Each structure stands twice: as structure tokens, then as C-alpha cells.
Backbone:
């Protein structure tokens, strides 16, 4: 990509090109990370329920505390990802990363 220095007012066209590529890469990487996190978070209700219900009574308090901590951390992540919308997948499909990948490659089958 070559940018005319006179029309942009930017000093070095090579530096501008590198900066632009780095910004685009960061945006793409951010989207990929957000999509993977969203796929992982769809299983969270099941994980929390299992964490709370499968331990013995003696260990239940620690399990519930761990589940509460997990929920708190997840809420922070969800608040960060609030602007992203979930894909049009069935509820059963949301738990599978392969379904997310397929959707992201072709959102309109």
C-alpha cells in the first residue's frame, strides 16, 4: 500500500502502512479472542451448576465460593464483550467451538 505523502499529511508512507497493518491485525485478533471467549462462556451455567451440586456437603462451601468467584470473573468478561452480539446458532450449537468457526467463516449459509 502506497500513500501519497502530500495528500495525507503523514510523514513516511512506509511507517503509515506498518501502523495501519498493525491496527488491522489488532482488531482482527481482538475479534477472534472475543469470539472464542463467547463460545467458552456459553457453557458457564452448566459449569457453575456442576460445581455447586457435585461436591460433598463438607466441601460444598468451598465449591460454592469457587463458583461465585467464577461468576464474578465471568461478569467482568461479559461486560467487556457487551457490544458483541451472539451469532444465530441454536442453543445446543453455542457450546461447540467448531460451530462458531463455521458460523464465523460463513454467517449466512
Residues:
Amino acid at each position: 500500500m502506497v500513500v501519497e505523502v502530500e495528500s495525507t499529511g503523514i510523514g513516511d508512507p512506509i511507517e503509515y502502512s506498518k501502523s495501519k497493518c498493525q491496527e488491522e491485525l489488532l482488531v482482527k485478533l481482538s475479534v477472534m479472542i472475543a469470539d472464542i471467549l463467547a463460545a467458552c462462556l456459553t457453557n458457564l451455567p452448566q459449569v457453575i451448576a456442576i460445581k455447586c451440586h457435585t461436591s460433598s456437603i463438607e466441601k460444598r462451601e468451598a465449591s460454592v465460593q469457587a463458583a461465585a468467584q467464577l461468576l464474578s470473573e465471568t461478569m467482568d468478561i461479559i461486560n467487556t464483550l457487551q457490544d458483541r452480539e451472539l451469532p444465530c446458532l441454536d442453543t445446543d450449537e453455542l457450546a461447540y467451538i467448531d460451530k462458531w468457526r463455521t458460523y464465523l467463516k460463513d454467517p449466512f449459509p
